[in-house]
Task: inverse folding
């Protein structure tokens, strides 16, 4: 039986999901929707979709799986719009960096018999220098050798979790089952801090009286240091990711400020040896991280007990919360 998988949001992430699953045509029928008609046409032309749906309702009403590849500030409103059209047994997979807040929305909005799992993928390090997030920048191997963070509400059906893990493997990534609070803490460090730090750098530099002349001297150091602003998680209501994860973000910003204060103290003390050691260790640690990230030779990722029967897509069809259990 063919499973309908609907992708909402056809930027880099959503279109890459479609491309990564292109070899599963016998089992998956890929439907795509985006408010941008040009993005839908381009995604279909790239081979990421089997069909496009202009109307959001038509995109989801027959879907067994719905992938939300949306800006953070569109997740809740989209969920509110589609819940009435989700058929029983449908599984919604949210790729945004939100964990706790997203799961709270799902608990509030989803009717019984529909499932919500966060599925946040990290990217293939081969594309770390790609600053675009457009449909054209989608790649079939965008998630290869990456870790995908999976979280779900308590008591979520094991089949829904297995489905998330199976899809993760099909796109070339490794599933990492995490407590949503833990995941929000980790993502505050590696996703949100770089973007807020880049914003602070821009404001610090470009608000200076000398910026009119300094801008003529900017080079790749400034461009690279501020490039995280090109990958913000929202499209209109900027900063929602940080606000919805504010306790963790506040904590990591405090740590970051302390590191900056350490550097300032070394400068004030004219401590050449201390500054050299700090910069060398930071450079070497970054090199070690990038080598590890590229090789993807990680320790075994922990996993909850999942159903062992079924194929790579799990036993999705017939997934129901009220099925009778054996005594």
Result:
């Amino acid at each position: 039986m063919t499973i309908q998988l609907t992708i909402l949001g056809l930027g880099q992430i959503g279109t890459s999901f479609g491309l990564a699953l292109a070899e599963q045509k016998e089992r998956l029928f890929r439907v795509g929707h985006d408010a941008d008609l040009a993005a839908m046409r381009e995604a279909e032309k790239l081979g990421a979709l089997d069909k496009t749906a202009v109307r959001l309702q038509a995109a989801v009403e027959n879907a067994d799986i719905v992938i939300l590849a949306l800006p953070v500030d569109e997740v809740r409103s989209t969920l509110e719009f589609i819940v009435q059209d989700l058929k029983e047994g449908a599984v919604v997979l949210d790729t945004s960096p939100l964990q706790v807040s997203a799961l709270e929305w799902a608990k509030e909005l989803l009717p019984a018999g529909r499932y919500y799992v966060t599925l946040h993928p990290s990217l293939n390090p081969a594309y770390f220098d790609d600053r675009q997030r457009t449909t054209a920048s989608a790649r079939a191997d965008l998630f290869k050798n990456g870790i995908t963070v999976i979280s779900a509400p308590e008591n979520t059906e094991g089949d829904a979790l297995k489905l998330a893990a199976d899809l993760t493997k099909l796109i070339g990534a490794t599933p990492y089952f995490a407590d949503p609070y833990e995941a929000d803490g980790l993502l505050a460090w590696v996703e949100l801090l770089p973007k807020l730090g880049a914003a602070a750098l821009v404001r610090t530099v470009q608000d200076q009286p000398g910026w009119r002349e300094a801008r003529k001297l900017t080079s790749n150091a400034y461009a690279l240091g501020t490039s995280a602003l090109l990958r913000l998680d929202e499209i209109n209501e900027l900063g929602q990711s940080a606000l919805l994860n504010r306790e963790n973000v506040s904590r990591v910003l405090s740590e970051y400020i302390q590191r900056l204060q350490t550097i300032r103290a070394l400068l004030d003390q004219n401590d050449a040896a201390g500054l050299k050691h700090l910069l060398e260790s930071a450079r070497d640690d970054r090199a070690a991280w990038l080598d590890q990230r590229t090789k993807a030779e990680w320790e075994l990722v922990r996993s909850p007990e999942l159903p062992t029967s079924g194929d790579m897509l799990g036993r999705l069809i017939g997934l129901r919360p009220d099925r009778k259990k054996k005594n």
